[in-house]
Design goal:
By secondary structure, the chain is mainly beta. Helix content is about 10%, strand content about 60%. The protein is built from two helices and 20 strands. The strands form three sheets. It has a twelve-stranded antiparallel β-barrel with strand order 3-4-5-6-7-8-10-13-15-18-19-20. Strands 11-12-16-17 form a four-stranded antiparallel beta sheet, with helices on one face. The longest helix has 27 residues.
């Protein structure tokens, strides 16, 4: 047998080396193709997780509600903790989100009826997937708003912009013991126009509101590193949305605990309807074949969403207030979602 005609001896058979190489390459390509959709499905969650980070804070911002008509200014601080499970969909497995953060807000009267305010929101979100992947978002948003408040109601315009560093991206490739890793950034903005009024029914106060918002959540492109095989390059991605929200706060009669202390129960409910596309696209390609581009379609947030909560407010005196609230969210793409918030507010 000629030395140029290299062969492999397996179970009594001579197999040309070229055939063995082709079989090994085909097997590796098949394994990489099998991991392409799950990989894109996990990374495609990035804009959605950034959206949820802000969503858990947004419902706690109610322009004109932190300050009384006779006050000049109010400051408030709210630590927030939430957990949320996004249902599996398409190529994405079930995602477990844990979010912790805090909000610092200020609201004041520039004139008798004109109110301005600002809110800084910071936090960290960790997403873990049933298939072993994970990533972490660190960052926050800044909101400013202004409006007319007549005491019994008013209108407002709110502008929000935020950003997150996406760290600790890990994905099991199935082709290498080491996971594929990466880092990128996520960006977010929203414009909201809303109105609110107030009604009294004996000792019960009802404050309904309506708002319309336009926003966008997106994540930048990045290339995976770490593992020796099965790595991908991911393009930028994101979705734009329009949202109509109807909400209300129902506050009960305050009960005196002492000469200066009183406590009042309250309930909140908010229904949101999202307009726009149901999908957004993510381009991905193996780092070994960047021209082999695959397009993955991921789902935008569900059209219908309900947020309902219960809480109590403790009035220490006429200026200091402590509020505790527990809320749950319900939507067709959410398996479970809970939020706890504690607010310290002072007016002067």
């Amino acid at each position: 047998m000629s030395r140029k005609q290299q062969t492999h001896y397996t179970a009594g058979l001579f197999i040309p080396a070229a055939i063995v190489t082709a079989l090994v390459t085909a097997s590796a390509n098949a394994q990489q193709a099998a991991t392409a959709e799950p990989a894109a499905g996990q990374v495609a969650r990035l804009p959605r997780v950034a959206f949820e980070q802000y969503e858990q804070h947004r419902v706690l911002i109610r322009p004109g509600q932190a300050i009384n008509p006779d006050d000049g200014m109010a400051l408030w601080l709210t630590p927030v903790s939430s957990s949320l499970d996004l249902k599996a969909g398409g190529s994405a497995s079930l995602a477990h989100l844990s979010e912790d953060g805090a909000m610092l807000g200020m609201e004041g009267h520039l004139s008798e009826f004109f109110v301005v305010g600002g809110v800084i929101s910071v936090g960290e979100s960790t997403a873990k997937f049933d298939d072993g992947g994970r990533f972490r978002l660190e960052g926050g948003t800044f909101s400013i708003y202004g409006g007319i408040d007549y005491g019994f109601g008013g209108v407002h315009l709110r502008l929000t912009k935020g950003g997150h560093e996406v760290k600790g991206i890990e994905r099991v490739t199935g082709l290498d013991a080491a996971p594929a890793t990466g880092e990128t950034e996520a960006r977010f903005w929203e414009i909201e126009l809303g109105a609110r009024t107030s009604y009294a029914f004996g000792a019960i106060e009802v404050t309904p509101g309506v708002s319309f918002a336009v926003g966008k959540s997106r994540a930048k492109s990045f290339v995976e590193t770490g593992a020796a095989a099965g790595l991908f390059s991911f393009g930028s991605q994101g979705f734009t949305y329009k949202r109509l929200t109807l909400d209300s706060e129902i506050r009960g009669q305050a009960f005196a605990l002492s000469r200066s202390l009183s406590v009042a129960p309250f309930a909140t409910v908010a229904y949101s309807y999202r307009f726009g596309s149901n999908n957004y696209a993510l381009d991905s390609a193996p780092v070994t074949a960047l021209t082999d581009i695959r397009v993955n379609q991921s789902r935008t947030p569900a059209r219908h969403r309900l947020d309902a909560g219960l809480g109590v407010e403790l009035a220490v005196n006429e200026r200091w207030f402590i509020t505790a609230q527990y809320a749950r969210q319900n939507a067709s793409d959410i398996r479970s979602a809970d939020r706890c918030a504690l607010t310290l507010r002072v007016s002067f």
